[in-house]
Specification:
single chain; globular; 172 residues; 0% strand
Length: 172
């Protein structure tokens, strides 16, 4: 229930600072890093026999997901200013298709590999795959961070609340 207000907060921060790329980058790196730390910590707590390990996992993954939702508005705003308006649909469609293909091309072989690992090593194998995937995800952020950030489109000097309420005021 906190995800939508969190997106509004990150949009306000990105607009007020004028640094969408930095806001996006910090939130995205924090999201992925926190998820990795949370899973490693919960796994360790579980292995030492602490009964609250699942609670730690749930709390940290929820916080990570919150940060993940918060990085969407600066990212979408940044991309909307880079990609020509008449190409938005084609761009996002191709991007989504490539992401889906990448996920399938990596997830299926990883799952088949883990199936072949002896039962007593499955957690370690899963952990290795997860850490590797997280490192690749962080490298992905570095690559995306090389995309130039254009000057944000002017809002006509209006305040954020005026802009966010605009669809509600529009009778069409």
């Amino acid at each position: 229930s906190c995800l939508m207000p969190a997106q509004i907060i990150s949009a306000i921060v990105a607009q007020r600072t004028g640094k969408r790329k930095i806001v996006w980058c910090y939130l995205a790196v924090a999201e992925r890093s926190l998820k990795l730390i949370g899973i490693l910590l919960a796994l360790w707590l579980w292995q030492v026999g602490w009964p609250g390990a699942s609670i730690v996992l749930i709390v940290i993954v929820c916080l990570s997901n919150l940060l993940g939702m918060m990085h969407a508005p600066p990212w979408m705003s940044w991309m909307a200013d880079i990609i020509p308006e008449d190409r938005h649909g084609a761009f996002w469609g191709r991007r989504t298709a490539w992401i889906a293909l990448s996920v399938i091309a990596t997830t299926v072989p990883a799952a088949l590999l883990i199936d072949e690992v002896p039962e007593d090593q499955k957690i370690n194998a899963m952990l290795a795959v997860f850490v590797f995937a997280t490192v690749i995800g962080l490298l992905d952020l570095i690559i995306h961070g090389s995309i130039p950030e254009p000057t944000p489109a002017a809002s006509g000097g209006r305040k954020f609340t005026h802009e966010i309420l605009k669809p509600i005021r529009d009778r069409k």
